[in-house]
Structures are given as C-alpha cells and as structure tokens.
Design a protein that fits this description.
The protein is α+β, with helices and mostly antiparallel strands. 22% of the residues lie in helices and 16% in strands. It is globular. The strands form 4 sheets. It has a 7-stranded mixed β-sheet with strand order 6-5-8-9-11-10-12. The protein has a 3-stranded mixed β-sheet with strand order 7-13-14. The two termini are 28 Å apart. It has 2 domains: 93 residues, LysM domain (Membrane-bound Lytic Murein Transglycosylase D, Chain A, Roll), CATH 3.10.350; 225 residues, no CATH class.
C-alpha cells in the first residue's frame, strides 16, 4: 500500500507542477470598459462595493462610463458610510474601537464624516513596536483578511505540498463523505522524512484541510509541520503526535486570513504567530485559539491580535480578550463517513465521543494560563518550508 501511495503522490507531483501560477499583483487603478458595473468590479478586485464607490466619491449604484478611471482601494482600509460610527466599523471588521482609534490617531467620541478613509488595525505593524516592524521588514506577513477568494474549481479536491512530496487529491466527495485515499495521502505528506513511518491522521483533520482549501479558492496548501514525536518542545499530549494538528501556509493567502477562517469554525484549535509565516490548525472537541508574539526560537509571548500582553497582564481577569465568533458551526461536522475507492463506507466518525487531553499546544482565550505555564511553543519545532525547486 505504501509503495502504491508513494507512486500516486509522485504522479500527482508532476501534475501539480503544471498550471499553477503566482497570484496577480494588486492594481491601484482601473479604466472602465463597456459593460463594467461597480458591483462587478468590486467582485473582480475583491473589495467591498461601498469601499470602491466611496473611494471614488460615488455610490454603489452609480453609472460608470467607458474610459473612466477608478481608484481601487488598497487592502487594510475602509471608507465611512453615512450614519456609521466607530462601533459599527469595529464590529464589521472584528476589531475593537480602541484599536481603530490607535490606527487612525483618533481620540474620544470622534464624529466621522461620510466618505472618510480609515486604516484598519492589523494590516501594518504598530509604529510603537520596533520588533514588529523589524519582523515585517524581514518578511513576516501580517496580511489583510480577504473577504472573497473565489470558488474552487473542484470543491473537495486539495493541492498539497509537504516535506516528502506533493499531491492533488479528492478529500471530500460531492456527498460530503471523506475519501480514504485523501486521508492516507495527507498522512503520507505530513511526515517529516521520506523514511519515517506513516502515522494515522484523524479523518476530521482531512475535512478541515479540505474546507480551508475550498474557502481560499483551491489554492495550494503547504504542510509546514505535521507529525511530531513527543520530545524536546513537543509534549506527549500535543495533537501533532495524534495526527490531529498541522501547521500550514496557503499559497497567496495571508496567515491572518487563514487564522480568521479557522476561528469561524466550531471544535477547532487555531494558533496565529504574527512574526512567522504559518498558522496552526487542529481538530478537537472544544474551541481554542491563541496569538503568540514571540520570535522564532523564543519563549512564547501571548497576547491579542493588536499586541502582546504586558508583564503580568496575562493573569489579570480584565486583560484584553481575543474573542471568537463561530460563524460556521456546521462546516467541519462532528459526524461523517469515510469511503474507499468503491464508495463503500469503511468508517463512521463520531467526534462527539472524543475527550480532549488535559493540556495542549496553546491556550484557550477563555482560560489562557500565563505563558510560562503554557504548553509547547510551536514555532520552536518549526521545520523549514518545503522546497519549491
């Protein structure tokens, strides 16, 4: 079975090298053509139609004329609509009023003027944090949270790149069933080395990976770190040892966007590292999330999306909270079937019977311990990203 799977992965690697291209560079202006509408252009450039309209002093239903030059709003900005307050805008973009005020130098109950431009927090490093600025210059991606990455060409089909190879594989079929070959291929590619034994991947992790792939238009997913042994910085209770966790990159997608999508799902663990380039995702019975501001190879330093906790702040009951809104509770189901190539059910998974370990890689924001007492710092065990040669 291992030999046949290895051959399948090798063939898929050859296929994966064809037809993949880098994402197109963002454009700052657009010349209106015949038939262009504001809503169609907003979808094309993946911006909010109101932001596109207000950036050009127009309304979403304004008529466009051929040859007209439109400014495309950059990532990380929004434009104030009539009647909006800072509270409205903060809720719409999942941030705090205080963070919006800091990002725009506003104080108190500032009255907003319709059409005014506001910078959103999290799209550029805080000017007061020299370490964050250095991390950004060094290549760490804070990233904008895209609203729409387009539909995948083949829902449920995932392009994977691991340390031991690559594959294009159907993970979920049209009936929502998990394909056994997809689970086995994921297990193959989650290995650290070619001669390492193939571990057992929980099928629900395959579902999570497939949903992430579909959410971001079927873009390639790089498996930065999958299976790990219980040694050094990896504890025995880590989900990396159980085939329930993987650190990933989605090609052409900011890590922040992947983290935000993970946080919208139920019964998942999501770890965001603003100074690295990967996101930790796992499957579990209870939601968990964390933000670790430490640099590569350093002690964990937890905080919110805006900043790390100050000394002693992590113990305070009134410390800033990350918050979590599970907008897609049924997207990664707790019950599903696994089928083989003959569409015969080989396993029925009921995640509701699973009992989470007492400790794990990162804290839940509801009961986050002090960083010194927390479990393994994931980034210390981070392997080098797979070669694209």
């Amino acid at each position: 079975m291992t030999r046949h799977l290895g051959m399948a992965v090798l063939v898929a690697l050859c296929v994966a090298g064809v037809g993949l291209s880098a994402p197109a560079a963002a454009q700052r202006a657009h010349e209106v053509g015949s038939g262009d509408t504001m809503s169609a252009l907003a979808r094309r450039y993946r911006v909010d139609v109101w932001d596109l309209a207000l950036a050009n002093g127009m309304q979403p239903d304004s008529t466009l004329r051929a040859g007209q030059q439109l400014t495309i709003p950059p990532r990380g900005v929004t434009y104030v609509r009539a009647g909006q307050t800072l509270s409205h805008i903060a809720r719409a973009h999942d941030c705090s009023v205080e963070a919006l005020q800091r990002a725009n130098g506003l104080r108190g109950e500032t009255r907003l003027r319709a059409g005014s431009r506001l910078d959103l927090p999290g799209f550029a490093p805080p000017t007061s944090d020299r370490g964050a600025a250095a991390a950004l210059r060094g290549g760490a991606s804070w990233g904008a949270v895209e609203r729409d990455y387009g539909p995948p060409e083949q829902p449920g089909v995932v392009t994977l790149q691991g340390r031991t190879g690559a594959a294009i594989v159907e993970m979920i079929d049209a009936q929502g069933r998990v394909r056994l070959l997809g689970v086995r291929t994921l297990a193959e590619l989650m290995r650290r080395e070619m001669d390492a034994p193939i571990g057992s991947v929980h099928p629900r992790l395959a579902v999570l990976i497939a949903k992430i792939s579909d959410r971001f238009g079927g873009r390639e997913i790089r498996l930065v770190s999958g299976f790990r042994e219980a040694r050094r910085f990896t504890r025995r209770t880590s989900r990396h040892t159980q085939g329930r966790a993987v650190d990933i990159q989605v090609v052409g997608v900011p890590p922040r966007a992947v983290f935000e999508y993970c946080r919208s799902l139920a019964q998942t663990g999501c770890g965001f590292y603003p100074r690295t380039t990967f996101v930790h995702v796992d499957v579990r019975e209870h939601d968990a999330q964390w933000v670790d501001w430490s640099g590569h190879g350093r002690r964990p330093r937890y905080g919110t999306l805006q900043r790390p906790y100050r000394r002693g702040e992590g113990k305070r009951p009134d410390r800033p909270r990350l918050g979590r809104h599970v907008a897609r509770p049924a997207e990664v189901p707790l019950m599903f079937s696994v089928v083989n190539k003959h569409n015969a059910v080989v396993r029925t998974v009921d995640e509701r019977a699973y009992e989470a370990p007492d400790s794990d890689e990162g804290p839940s924001d509801d009961d986050a311990p002090e960083p010194e007492q927390n479990a393994e710092p994931e980034q210390l065990a981070q392997p080098e990203p797979p070669s694209r040669a």
